[in-house]
Amino acid sequence: MSPIDRLNGIMARLRAPVGGCPWDVEQTFETIAPYTLEEAYEVADAIERGDMDDLKSELGDLLFQVVFHARMAEEQGLFVFDDVANAIADKLERRHPHVFGEEAAKADGVAQKARWEDIKAAERKAKAQHGVLDDVPVGLPALARAAKLTKRAARVGFDWPSTAEVLDKLDEEVGELKAEIVAGDLDKAREELGDLLFVMANLARKLGVEPEDALRGANAKFVRRFGFIEAELAKAGRTPEQSDLAEMDGLWDAAKVAERAG
């Protein structure tokens, strides 16, 4: 028995109405979807930490999510796991004619990327997705979706010529946000904050940076530096609650100096 057959068998057993796991049996596509997203994030986290043992485990957890969805689909007569595997295999062959087809295998990366986008556009047309933004998944994290929306629009020419114009727009959005905060209109401030984040995602795309990756890096830096603050306060037998902003801000600067020195 292959490992994937074993895993599919375990999933079928877990979902069995009689003798299965009650929790697994009651799940639906909708209830499992958040876990699927969570497992994808945990894969990314393991990669970022460089923990290959954990990555192996997290990839298994993510594969289990695929098996779970495929099993529920099989129970409803929609498709089976092999259909999922064949669908991605067909797509990969279709989107790589320079490897699997008759097109020149020596095509450079730029030409291959252009061809890839042409093929995807044809696929969208075949699925009656005529709008440029039709198939940008709504379920993506908002920041990642913003970057993908701007990337898709840029392909048809709806884009600023350079980062300079994006930075100008960023200044404009900051000004509008400040104005709404001063006016005390929190609903409009929320809208302007969204506009600001959207422009930031666009700037990330222009710089060739994945905004989710950049924000994850900033999150990790914040955790690391705040941990330094806690550790320094603990040396004096105190906690952050027993400190004040001025002291913690000084320790934050000390953390930055320590990072540069290290």
Give an overview in words.
This protein has 3 domains: 3-95, Orthogonal Bundle (Helix Hairpins), CATH 1.10.287; 131-209, Helix Hairpins, CATH 1.10.287; 213-261, no CATH class. 75% of the residues lie in helices and 0% in strands. The relative contact order is 0.05. α1 crosses α4 (52-75) and α9 packs antiparallel against α10. It is built from 12 helices and no strands. The model has no long low-confidence stretch (mean pLDDT 91). It has helices at residues 3-14, 22-26, 29-49, 52-75, 81-95, 97-100, 109-126, 142-154, 163-183, 186-207, 211-235, 245-261. The protein is mainly α.
Topology pattern, helix = H, strand = E:
HHHHHHHHHHHH
Low-confidence stretches: none
Q: How would you sum up the major sheet?
A: none
**Fraction of residues in helices?**
over 70%
Distance between the termini: 51 Å
> Which value, in Å, is the CA radius of gyration?
24 Å
What's the total helix number?
12
Average pLDDT, rounded to a whole number, is 91
CATH class of the largest domain: Mainly Alpha
What share of residues are in beta strands?
Answer: under 5%
CATH topology value of the largest domain:
Helix Hairpins
Number of domains: 3
CATH architecture of the largest domain: Orthogonal Bundle
Judged by helices, strands and strand pairing, the structural class is: mainly alpha
* Strands, count: 0
Outline type:
globular
* Name of the CATH superfamily of the largest domain: MazG-like
Pfam family, one: MazG
Protein name: Nucleoside triphosphate pyrophosphohydrolase
Organism: Brevundimonas kwangchunensis
Domain NTP pyrophosphohydrolase MazG-like: 27-100, 166-225
